[in-house]
UniProtKB/TrEMBL annotation:
It comes from the Bacteria. It comes from Nocardioides bigeumensis. This is Trehalose-6-phosphate synthase. PANTHER family: BCDNA.GH08860, TREHALOSE-6-PHOSPHATE SYNTHASE. Pfam families: Glyco_transf_20. Belongs to the glycosyltransferase 20 family.
Amino acid sequence: MTTSGSADLVIVANRLPVDRVRDAEGNPAWRRSPGGLVSALEPVLRRNDGAWIGWPGGDEAGLEPFTEDGLRLVPVALSAQEIEEFYEGFSNGTLWPLYHDLVAKPEFHREWWDAYVAVNQRFAMAAAETAAKNATVWVQDYQLQLVPQMLRELRPDLKIGFYLHIPFPPTELFQQLPWRRQILEGLLGADLIGFQLAGGAANFVRLVRQRVGHRTHRDTIELPDGRLVRARNYPISIDAAAYEELARSEGVAKRAVEIRAQLGDPETVFLGVDRLDYTKGIRARLRAYGELIEEGVIDVGKSVFVQVATPSRERVEQYRLLRDEIDRLVGRLNGDLARIGRPAVSYLHSSYPKEEMAALYRAADVMVVTPYRDGMNLVAKEYVACRFDDDGALVLSEFAGAAHELRQAWQVNPYDLNGMKATLVEASRADPKERTRRMRALRKQVLENDVAHWADSFLTDLAGDVKPKR
Ligand code: F6P
């Protein structure tokens, strides 16, 4: 057993909710990173004398625990080699593509795995030293799947939860992983394992039965020592009311009008907003849109497609290739199809503050979210939360986790280019009454199931009030 700390609730996530930046004098400082997770957990952390453990980004060593705006933050340092092997390598070159239906080919390297084990051990140690006796520790996401078991060995007194933000793959794909058993056993260190969808939880339970040989009953796994582990779905969400409030603000309203004017006041604005990631289906949606212009179905003089692609994981080979591909495709579409002052695609390789995003959502007639596979996709929910006018059409991939809740969206199969083209046209030409009918239903769903509801349901179940699911 390690000596315990004083926090009654500990969040362990790959990243801290702050970024390392330089202030006006060039001195290093911290800036809050605007994440949904932190806004959901902040009130719970404050109530429970909580702490957040995570990597501050970069390879700066020797950072001590500190308090920022009343939040206790514990940095875990990664060396340059660990960033390469643990973060870019095993997390984003092996697990990310494997868990997203092999949209890209996962690479299996033994030295990446060794780094994954070593870094998970460091996070587990930090959690063990931070948590008070009998505290609750909630571990987040695919980068830290070994932490629950490592932590249980160090601190058997703790309540441990784990939540996977990305999809849990079908059993056939997961079995490719040379370290499949270690990952399953790592997760089984938790008392409660949360997934986005019921299907992911069921895949996990089946794998545990088949590969590890434990007895299972519905969502419950019985370990040889009698301990019970539960695997359930808790679809994540956003702070919907805060998005709506932002969208209603005067500044955002003005900016939305300005955006449309800057785009040349088109009749229809299509919008895509994604991290620049190969799982998001950006290429397919732009190709579909380009073909519609080529065929004369969409008039480039009357419509524009705004695609925001936030830079992401830029040192990983697959992401570099994707960036070049999208650059070329946008160049070709605009070269072939644009007219002076009328681009086919307005492409923005950049990230923007929330206010600008809310204005874009308000300005967009058709929001196009077409990932090949996505754990949830919060952009779809943000769009809905911002449309307090009950207008706007959401085109949503059936392979996004959000498709299970957002049934009233225009759903598409992103692999079916013709189907996607037909749906883009249908959504953009839908009768206003039909758009409103659908948007009202979507808004009810998103506003009633916000991120606070997500965090509360998970933490309540973890605290021991788990009721059997019917
Ligand atoms: O969706 C999984 C996730 O890890 C998010 O938690 C995160 O915001 C996003 O991907 C980007 O991740 P990274 O930390 O690699 O920039």
